[in-house]
Design a protein that fits this description.
Length: about 475
């Protein structure tokens, strides 16, 4: 019988080592290595102890070698989650036998999204395991999230339990078609002598649930905590063994939430879903452009509309800027929803290449709606909003811009320009400023919106402000 072994694991990033190290070679933190005891094959023992593997027809023999040409390449059957945004991020639905990790900040809406999704499933036997809340709390949330009569369905079973062995016993009795674990950091197995949430417990419990999902074909959704740095709490191997990692992002002080795919073995990682937090739960936002734009901003300086793309979805966002004389000796630079360092670079381009003196002025930039945008095509809208506020000249109604700005002041081309133009045209915009190089090979005759191709920043500003 194999003996248990000891290992040293970094409590910050999960890096493993055969001996103790003062400094972690992965994350660079000091004195973070902790000694752990690793039980031999404990993940499979925990699942097999309740007879779950035998119930779902697990084989004890070895897997056979297969020729690549004889392996079936058919698409995996998917489970429709009843949520268009979630289905989009998952790649078309939840694959049977897959294991999905959902992470996010405390209170961002992870449990809300999961509970309202499983309540909308029809004729699907779901086991919801909660290690943090009581059954009464879950019932009250379900009544708030669901229409009348849905919470009385017998398709959803609630189990408030922290023991992995007890969870597998209930799975054997209930025979669910979907299992939700809320959260993986609260589950512990008796095979490991450590507290719930430790690196060893998270790893062994995840390995047991992975083994169960692959053998049984029952999909498993794991809800995970994150650290103060925004990474999934626990060992890094947790993100490696799961099939899909999705992150729930957003500012708790704003109503919009973004569901972003970080890893997906069954789909693209460039998809994202947008939700609006309401009293009755999360509402899907099918057209985010209409919600992210102000209804009336005519005559107001410091505003510019940008055609951006997050993932594969084009939408228009409103860029707000405020430029004022510095009240103190050192001017302030502040950006909300935009990279602070890139803002400093764009202000330096305005100083050196265009000739605007902003060294003694405070500059504040904000992306409306509480979203954080990383698209380089936002550069030109940031510069437009800053100049609009600095000169107190509003941008004409019906204009939007997109383009990346280089250090020499040139406007560089952006990707998917046709989608950006079509989105602006769909929302009723009459003029759009685009990079000159994007016009090459573009069929401009099929657009009703007027295109203004530009090569440099000063040319773009002359076109926009006349």
């Amino acid at each position: 019988m194999a003996k248990d072994k000891t290992a040293y694991v970094c409590s910050n990033c999960g890096q493993e080592s055969a001996k103790w190290l003062g400094k972690c070679p992965s994350c660079g933190q000091w004195n973070t290595f902790r000694e752990i005891r690793v039980s031999s094959n404990s993940g499979q023992q925990a699942a097999a102890s309740a007879g779950v593997m035998h119930r779902y027809g697990a084989t004890k023999g070895h897997n056979e070698v297969q020729k690549l040409g004889k392996i079936s390449a058919k698409d995996e059957p998917r489970l429709d989650m009843g949520d268009k945004e979630l289905n989009r991020v998952l790649g078309g639905g939840l694959v049977k036998g897959s294991i999905v990790l959902l992470g996010g900040e405390p209170g961002i809406g992870k449990s809300t999204l999961t509970l309202q999704t499983i309540l909308n499933l029809h004729d699907i036997n779901v086991l919801y395991v909660s290690g943090e809340e009581s059954a009464h709390q879950i019932k009250m949330r379900a009544e708030r999230l669901s229409p009348r009569g849905v919470t009385d369905s017998d398709d959803v079973s609630i189990l408030c339990e922290n023991s992995l062995e007890r969870i597998f016993e209930c799975i054997k009795d209930i025979k669910p078609q979907l299992v939700v674990i809320d959260s993986i950091q609260t589950i512990a197995t008796e095979e490991v002598d450590s507290s719930p949430g430790s690196l060893t417990q998270v790893r062994e419990c995840s390995a047991a649930l992975l083994r169960f999902a692959k053998v049984s074909g029952v999909p498993v959704i794991l809800i995970g905590h994150i650290t103060k740095d925004g990474a999934i709490a626990g060992p890094k191997i947790l993100e490696h063994i799961v099939d899909t990692v999705i992150q729930f992002e957003g500012d708790q002080h704003h109503i919009y939430r973004i569901l972003r795919s970080i890893k997906n073995r069954f789909g693209s990682t460039s998809e994202l879903g947008i939700y609006e937090m309401q009293q009755t739960g999360l509402r899907e936002v099918s057209n985010p452009s209409e919600l992210l734009l102000s209804q009336d901003h005519e005559g107001i300086s410091g505003l510019a509309i940008s055609a951006t793309i997050e993932g594969v979805r084009p939408f228009l966002v409103e860029t707000q800027a405020l430029v004022s004389t510095a009240a103190y000796g050192t001017p302030q630079r502040s950006a909300t929803g935009f990279d602070q360092r890139r803002l400093n670079m764009l202000l330096a381009v305005l100083e050196k290449r265009v000739g605007f003196r902003l060294a003694q002025k405070d500059v504040f930039v904000n992306i409306a709606g509480g979203l954080r945008v990383t698209d380089m095509a936002m550069d030109l809208s940031i510069i437009t909003a800053v100049i609009s506020s600095n000169t107190d000249t509003p941008v004409e109604n019906g204009w939007c811009v997109c383009g990346e700005v280089g250090l020499s002041g040139e406007v560089r081309p952006v990707n998917r320009i046709e989608q950006r133009i079509s989105e602006a045209e769909k929302l009723g915009f009459t003029d759009i400023v685009i990079p000159q190089n994007n016009v090459n090979g573009l069929d401009t005759s099929r657009f009703n919106i007027k295109l203004h191709p530009v090569k440099r920043v000063e040319q773009a500003l002359r076109v926009i402000f006349g």
